[in-house]
Design brief:
The structure is a single chain. The chain is mainly α. Helices cover 75% and strands 0% of the residues. The protein contains 7 helices and no strands. The chain has helices spanning 15-18, 23-33, 41-68, 76-85, 92-113, 115-119, 123-170. α2 crosses α3 (41-68), α3 (41-68) crosses α4 (76-85) and α4 runs antiparallel to α5. The protein is elongated.
Length: 171
């Protein structure tokens, strides 16, 4: 990524310059690091550009390492190796800590999201319970249907009797 002079504002940004981090994220990071200091908009923009450039630099290096190893996916190891190769070995310990935290959080989410495992019931038992619930629902529907039929039959008989009684009075 290159820095562009204010005179070049009329030029449309190229594809590389369009890649950036959300300003809100950068503002939040700045606020967390220096909560009592005001930071000028120009400084915020410079920090944003530096962060974007740093990520681009590390990503490019990790991509090269990935390609050299004939891999198709950039892994954390490629990024860590890229940090070391570019002279940012001081960051590897922090990066490893963040990586481990992310892995633990992802594992925790997976454990929480698998309700099946949390129930402690086998899939076969759940299937059996489901089939039993379906059977009970069918029985209930059949009973309700039969009751409706009996009700209709009773109403039909009652209507017929009423009609027969009315017919006798007419004669």
């Amino acid at each position: 990524m290159s820095f562009v002079d204010d005179d070049d504002d009329l030029c449309p940004p190229n594809e590389e310059e369009e890649l950036s981090l959300p300003r809100a994220s950068i503002n939040k990071i700045i606020k967390e690091i220096v909560p009592t200091i005001r930071v000028a908009n120009e400084s915020r923009e410079l920090i944003l550009n530096c962060c974007t450039e740093f990520i681009h630099l590390i990503s490019s290096e990790a991509n090269e390492i990935c390609n050299q190893k004939n891999k198709k996916t950039i892994s954390a190891e490629h990024i860590l190796e890229g940090l070391n190769k570019l002279g940012f070995s001081d960051f590897t310990r922090d990066a490893l800590n963040v990586l481990n935290d992310c892995k633990m959080q992802a594992a925790k989410r997976r454990r929480q999201s698998t309700r099946l495992e949390n129930l402690g019931i086998s899939e076969e038992e759940l299937f059996r319970q489901q089939q039993e619930l379906i059977r009970q629902a069918r029985e209930q529907m059949n009973e309700e249907f039969q009751q409706q039929q009996y009700g209709l039959q009773a109403q039909t008989i009652e209507n017929k009797e009423n009609c027969d009684d009315d017919d006798d009075d007419d004669y």
